[in-house]
Fold:
Amino acid sequence: MKRARSPYRLPIDPAMPLFTRCHHRIKFTLIVCLSAVLCGCAAYEWGRPAELAARSIFIAPVGNETELPQVAALLNAALREAFLEHGGYTLAPSRARADAVVEITLRDLERAPRARLPTDTVRAASYDLSVSAAVSVTKGGEAHRFRVAADTVSYLSPSLPDAEYQGLPRLAQDLAQRIRDNAIYRW
Structure:
């Protein structure tokens, strides 16, 4: 028994160009993909990107009012790295040579028990460690002040000081990125 030919189907002729021989669904898919690529490129703007509000930044030594002295040095290093990673910024050696000045004072450090051991309900197995900082960003004589906070979890390995020491680099990096993002937003 012979199948009836569909009136919508074109006969295939080997002499026809490939695009004409393709099935209608393939043609439609190619047209949709091509238009999506062209529409995606439509928002591209030629030329240089917008100018940065400040090119050189002086990061003052971090003030520390918490009970962890090593967090200030870690935050200072992480903050310098965060601004350099962002691109377009250079670190100025002094306030006089900088377009903007960033001053930070670490204010509050809190430890809160997160989980307890099943055998010991008094001693915690992990702590939430959070720190907040008061930040002042000065550019062109205009100062913007804001507060930033970050937190991390410290798992008690052998002791609390060891666990805090291991968690402080993560905490400093998170706080530095938040300070950088807020400072750039306020310029």
User: Anything to note?
Assistant: The chain has one domain: 56-186. The chain has a mean pLDDT of 80. Helices lie at 18-21, 24-41, 70-86, 160-186. Strands lie at 56-59, 63-64, 90-91, 100-116, 124-139, 142-155.
